[in-house]
Design a protein that fits this description.
alpha/beta; single chain; TIM Barrel; 253 residues
């Protein structure tokens, strides 16, 4: 199953999925989040949280690593409050460190965060995101290794992958490396020699190759649309998946 949802920022600056802004002057945050969780469950909406972007678990400065872990934990607490499962974040940067040194620092930090999640009994899954620039930690291979060695999840941003690979991408080949169930993002993308520049509106032509690959490999994913016009594009993506799936069912195997 492929579930397509638009990205929507709440006033908490961490919510993704369809979530109404928190009305601080009417209800307390906890009460409002409880209502959002109930509404989402009734409507069959899958919620997720994107942690703040200013996170670097491989920083040269220890205080920045501490602050980064706290931002992730704050996001996990909020996610747990309104029933979101995946907590997405960009893990860090190489800077002057080797890929191995960076991986080691990020792995250590994630294990520490996971320990606190377990202690607090929060029902969330850390999902470090595939990043759009080679200068950033977050290749598919690095994140799959993190999954294996820490037990965290993964968020595959296919637009970021498109930028990383400079448009030369084989979705089926990539999907065969991934678990059958995972959290994902998609949108149009502008990129250059150094990778991602910015997210763009999503077109049917740009999305169809990914949709076809997902249906072919039978992955079960939640796909968040990060386009500048998320609602319109998420609806288009859902129509594309529905149409392709109908054709697939009619075609003799």
């Amino acid at each position: 199953m492929i579930c397509c949802f638009p990205k929507q920022q709440s006033t908490l600056n961490t919510a993704m999925g369809i979530l109404q802004p928190v009305k601080h002057n009417i209800l307390g945050i906890e009460n409002r989040l409880t209502l959002d969780a109930i509404c989402a469950k009734e409507k069959g909406i899958i919620l997720s949280v994107h942690a703040p972007y200013y996170i670097n678990l491989a920083s040269d400065e220890k205080e920045k690593i501490v602050a980064s872990k706290q931002r992730i934990l704050d996001s996990c607490e909020r996610a747990n409050a309104f029933g979101a499962r995946s907590v997405v974040f960009h893990a860090g940067f190489y800077q002057k460190k080797t890929a191995e040194q960076t991986y080691s620092l990020i792995k250590k930090a994630i294990l520490e965060v996971l320990k606190k999640i377990s202690k607090n009994k929060w029902k969330v899954q850390l999902s470090p995101e595939v990043t759009g620039k080679p200068s950033q930690f977050g290749s598919v291979e690095e994140l799959l290794k993190l999954m294996k060695e820490t037990g965290c999840g993964i968020c595959v941003d296919f637009a970021h992958l498109y930028a990383r690979y400079q448009g030369d991408i084989d979705y089926v080949k990539i999907l065969k490396k991934l678990p059958k169930t995972f959290h994902a993002h998609f949108s149009g993308i502008e990129y250059g020699p150094k990778g991602e520049r910015k997210h763009l509106k999503t077109t049917k032509k740009f999305f169809e190759p990914l949709a076809e690959a997902l249906l072919k490999t039978r992955h079960d994913i939640t796909l968040i649309c990060e386009s500048p016009q998320p609602y319109k594009d998420a609806a288009m993506m859902k129509r594309v998946v529905t149409a392709l799936n109908a054709v697939k069912k009619k075609t003799p195997s």
